[in-house]
Structures are given as structure tokens and as C-alpha cells.
């Protein structure tokens, strides 16, 4: 102190409550939220990646995703959306087994016996028995 006066260095310090730019709370319109949610639902994309891209907290994006599941946000269809067409499948048409021969034949050596079309198994067996008994 000299001659009744004193000197003091002053340092000013400002304290703010402002968050870093990345974490600033913003009001996001529902259309923008829905678009961001849609991006986060793409295969191979993580919530953290998308949140970081838009400068928002991952838990905010998770909340928006929950809102979308509850129908409170309607995400737009992705640009690369797969579209489906209606397909009607008719029951299979029962096909008859192809006919090998139009008439059954019994071949015994040089002898061939051709039976009438649609001959019953009993008739074919009776003829086969008669042929074997004759030989």
C-alpha cells in the first residue's frame, strides 16, 4: 500500500450453464424425429451412430424409437423399401399318373397277351396263374 491506495489484480471468470454444441437441447419436429428413427432401423445401423450423426443423445433416439413402436411417430418408408405384391396360390391340380401303356400286357417268352384297357388286378392274376399252370 502506498499513500493510502492499494492495487489489486482482478480476474474475471464467467460460469455458464450452456452445454457443448453437441448436447444442446433442441426441439425436433415430429417429421424429423420420424426420419431419424427410420434411419436407425436400417439393418447394420446402430442407435449410437445415428444419434452421433445428428448431434443428439442416444437415449433421446431410443425414446423416439419407442414412440414409433407405440404409433406416436410414423417413420417414412425408407428409400430402398421393398415392395410386395399379392400372390394367389391355387391349390395344386391333381394330375392323374401318366399311363405307361393304354392296355396291360403279359409277356411270357415269345407269347404276349394284351388285355382290355382297365382290366382288373384279379383278371390279370387269373390269366398269369393260367399261363404258369400251362407251362
Automatic annotation (TrEMBL):
A GO biological-process term:
DNA transposition
Which GO molecular function terms does the record list?
sequence-specific DNA binding; transposase activity
Pfam families, per database record: HTH_Tnp_1
Q: Which InterPro entries match?
A: Transposase_8, Trp_repressor/repl_initiator, WH-like_DNA-bd_sf
* Record PANTHER family: TRANSPOSASE INSC FOR INSERTION ELEMENT IS2A-RELATED
Name the family.
Belongs to the transposase 8 family.
Q: What is this protein called?
A: Transposase
Species: Rhizobium aethiopicum
Amino acid at each position: 500500500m502506498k499513500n493510502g491506495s492499494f492495487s489489486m489484480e482482478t480476474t474475471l471468470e464467467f460460469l455458464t450453464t450452456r452445454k457443448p454444441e453437441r448436447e444442446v437441447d433442441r426441439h425436433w419436429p415430429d417429421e424429423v424425429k420420424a426420419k431419424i428413427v427410420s434411419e436407425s432401423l436400417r439393418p447394420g445401423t446402430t442407435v449410437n451412430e445415428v444419434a452421433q450423426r445428428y448431434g443428439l443423445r442416444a437415449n433421446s433416439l431410443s425414446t423416439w424409437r419407442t414412440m414409433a413402436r407405440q404409433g406416436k411417430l410414423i417413420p417414412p418408408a425408407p428409400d430402398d423399401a421393398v415392395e410386395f405384391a399379392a400372390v394367389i396360390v391355387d391349390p395344386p391340380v391333381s394330375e392323374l399318373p401318366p399311363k405307361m401303356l393304354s392296355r396291360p400286357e403279359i409277356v411270357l417268352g415269345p407269347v404276349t397277351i394284351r388285355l382290355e384297357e382297365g382290366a382288373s388286378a384279379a383278371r390279370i392274376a387269373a390269366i398269369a396263374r393260367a399261363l404258369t399252370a400251362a407251362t
